[in-house]
Amino acid sequence: MKVIVTGGGGYIGSHTILNILKETTWEVYSIDSHINSTPETFDRIEKISGKRITNYNVDVSDFKALKSCISQIPNVNGIIHFAALKAVGESVEQPLLYYRNNIQGLLNILECCKDLKINNLIFSSSCSIYGNVANLPVDESTPLAKTESPYAATKAMGEAILSDVQKSQKMSITALRYFNPVGAHESGLIGENPINKPNNLFPVITQTAVGKMDKMSVFGVDYNTRDGSCVRDYIHVSDIAKAHILALEKSVERKNFNNVQFYNLGSGNGVSVLEALNTFEKISGLSLNYELDERRVGDVEAIYSNSAKAKKELGWIPKHDLEEMMSSSWKWQQQLEKEKNA
Ligand code: UD1
After folding, report:
1. For the chain, what is the mean pLDDT?
2. Ligand 1 atom having least distance to the Cα of 126
């Protein structure tokens, strides 16, 4: 198997490459423009796995460059397409940036698949496409409500584009709907490392704990939830990474090209923001400096997953609980501090 991972230098992309290197004999290449990652990630992958990955520094929203790059890698069996922007709040402020990267990028990948006869595609979708739903947990048959942010809209549109393309192009397409991927690789040598100020809860927590941020905000404590803060379904990034291998194996086996395959990837546990903060304080023994703040525009109130379909059809069984997710993120943040002070 020969596989291209777009966004291989990013958070989920890098963990997926490590998982591929550990568990398969696949030949893997990365395409990453480092819009939101650093080339140094590939040094870290090499340190952990002993293998050097070739990364092509190409922006997926540049069709000519992308096609010329993929053409250099003959007989590709599948593409795992991560390369996209992913911050809900930022997408509200910069919608055009999100539509260009996430939609144009996907169109270009599909065009390349068509032109270069690449038949398997795994797409990074998100639970944000469900919007604010009345009944929890959500499964793949839950109707999609109005999207609450441009980020979520790009993922919902992405899935709609895939469904239309699937009908006209003989491809096996799988959309994996991530809930909230968090945590870091067991080695503690790689993890989420936002270039700019972090937006996601876990890096905000760990950066506050090491003093990189003075204090953090809990966005909204007047939601209709058990403690007033938003509820999310956190899932370990290594469990998410594993699902990509299972999904691509299944994709290659598929004979029926009629439909895009959709899978929820979540733990099934709803955890509030305040509960996440408490868990961090428990595993670290530290006290976090936080304040109760206004709601963040674009947030949904509560969401968590029924992932029975991924378990049944892909054999996907998440292995890490919330404390492991938190302690691996913390171990990674401490590693970054150690490197900074070395
Ligand atoms: C959203 C998507 C998720 C996607 C992720 C990518 C939803 C429901 N989920 O996650 O599928 O993978 O984007 O980024 O849309 N928070 C604070 N203080 C902070 C930061 C966050 O209170 O400083 C709160 C947020 O308001 C939210 C929760 O923590 O309630 C999680 O936020 P975040 O980590 O940014 O992820 P989502 O936006 O939920």
Report:
1. 96
2. 11
